[in-house]
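Minutes, project check-in
Item: structure for the 446-residue chain
Input as provided by the requester:
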Amino acid sequence: MTADHPTALRRWRTLDTAAGGLALDLGLYAVSAVFAAITAVTSTLLPHRAWGAVAAVGYLVAAMAVVVQLLLRRRGSASRLVGLPARWAVTGFAWASTALLPLLWQSVERATGRTDRAQEEVLVVEQSGARLLEHGTPYLGRDAIAALPPGEQLLGYTPYQPGMAMFGLPRGLIDAWWTDARVWFAVGTALALALAVAALRAARRAHPAAPAGTDDRRDATLLRGVQAATVLPICALTLATGGDDLPVLALCLLALALAAADRPGRAGLAVGLAGALKLFAWPVALVLIVWGLTRRAGTRVAAGAIGLPVAALLPALLVDRDALTENVLRFPLGHGLVTSPAQSPFPGYLIATALPAGRLIAAALLVAAGLAIAVRLARRPPRTAVATALICGYGLLAAIALMPSTRFGYLLYPLAMLTWAPALHRTTDTSTVPLPGQLSSRATSV
């Protein structure tokens, strides 16, 4: 335990390990059930209301399962039902019932004619897939967007990298419930997370010489990281109703896991795939490249981290350069024919809307935060996957807070990365696995 924040660290350790981790599990599922129930009743977005009605039941059942585990643990019996395997099973059930079940339900209802069972992101991705099949680019040019009815111009924009259109290809070929883009978002998310867990466990098996109980502690931190990326309401809701951020997040977590497993080339490929989908992965790629430089593997990381996004951009650039620029540059920067509806009340948005020259002030603060992170990388480059995850998490948190146009849902990136960080503790280090509170102070010394 570090000396910087001893009280906070003791409190976090007590919370995270109370009743073998079951106490925090119960809090997670119980609070999530309340959130889902409130969403089902009060949300103005119909897909969100539908999600809440299903997810509230799933979270409630998961919470009741944890209560049973706590009772059994107190009696000192049925250890198989209260250990880590049982906690993993409850987490799997929670994800299936609060993310996958509502996703499939809404996909089926949408296929039967319901028009209120998907967020706009799903339609945009599917339309981009259809355009990719027909025209060789997922983007409409400015003139084509201007020709659309005013109410449809926003949906004419595709503010993603070209790789995102791949999730819309199935819908461009066949109109069925299983071609809903969210189904394929879920497949990509599950595959990336499974590979991340496998990579960390394989690295652990490669270095078995560790004190008794270390593997259990590491598995517990890994479970907490998976929970943050799956059953946390902000992630489950996003996957069930929109979903495009989840495969990007999962690929970033996979890249960090491969970095922890000392696989820099593969880490670059994973974050490169994420960067070919969405710009949010590019800062993560930059930090991973700096991490690679500290291990004389910067070129191997950069080959995938930069090469894959560039390879994804080239076809769209060659087919219609102006359409690419309109969608991935002008529109996100607020210079499109319509403005983005992303307007969550974070500091950057409040400054941009409430102060004279507010957008310039918010932009200046965002640039200042970026420069501060750049100085941190130059002076103390991250030498471990833990430090890399922390810089990515806190950096994205600062960016989301200061961007003039942002969404509450983007918080899933920093929350998941910061919770994922303890699971990245090097398997060759036989010291106690650090907890999230310890990591922020340790990161400066690695």
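Outcome recorded: Residues 118-445 form one domain.
No further action items on this chain.
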